[in-house]
Automatic annotation (TrEMBL):
<keyword id="KW-0378">Hydrolase</keyword>
<protein>
    <submittedName>
        <fullName>Alpha/beta fold hydrolase</fullName>
    </submittedName>
</protein>
<dbReference type="InterPro" id="IPR050266">
    <property type="entry name" value="AB_hydrolase_sf"/>
</dbReference>
<dbReference type="InterPro" id="IPR000073">
    <property type="entry name" value="AB_hydrolase_1"/>
</dbReference>
<dbReference type="InterPro" id="IPR029058">
    <property type="entry name" value="AB_hydrolase_fold"/>
</dbReference>
<feature type="domain" description="AB hydrolase-1">
    <location>
        <begin position="6"/>
        <end position="224"/>
    </location>
</feature>
<dbReference type="Pfam" id="PF12697">
    <property type="entry name" value="Abhydrolase_6"/>
</dbReference>
<dbReference type="GO" id="GO:0016787">
    <property type="term" value="F:hydrolase activity"/>
</dbReference>
Amino acid sequence: MEVPTVVLVHGIRASRSMWLRQLAALEAAGIPALAPDLPGHGARRDEPFSIPRSLDVIEDAARSVTGPLVVAGLSMGGYLALHWAARTERRPDAVLAASCSTQPQGLALAAYRRVAWLIGRLPDGGAALNDFMARRFVPDHAREDLAVGGMTVSVMSDVLSGMVDVDTRADLCAIDVPVWLVNGRWDHFRGHERRFLSSCNDGRLIIVPRASHLVSLVRPVVFNRILLELVDTVAHAAPARVPPRQDVPAAVAA
């Protein structure tokens, strides 16, 4: 049995520090992990964001791994993880895509882009609004983790502009490894989760009770359990591929 390496892809405005509790859990379990900052975020906040450059960062991290590979992403990171997995020649062994089960196109994306543009025109670039929302909806421990790498509100417009050309359902159809879709019960980004599941060649949908969009931050213990289960599944997988399946949604107990 060879232990997989996990590559963690962070969400919009955040940085690798959003994964601190996952990195700690993986380290405690003896599982190697990488969590790069994407362009326009964290240590790379001065680099312009683009989808191609972000895929390059994921590709570089993936190619540094010589054995089995699990890639996990949340929100923007989930969309990018799927977009990368559908195109790379460095095939992962599984993908965990959290909080990204709404197709990033159409009126919803247009409205989100408009809101981001308006926020960007605020005198402080939206920093105070971001802080207020974090205090309102994110637990103290999660805010502390996010603060380590900092929040970059100014990148939102560039990210959302880039997402216009991302077709997540098409990406799911192109991925031939297990994909676990993980959504909080109260997540506003789960509107197309059934369609996404049906697009998977080998998919599983997991709903986390009492969790919002930032499921890995608000329910880290439950999320870590799911991530570790996927890693264990990959580690114990037989050399031959098992028949593809589409699991019914599973609610994770508290």
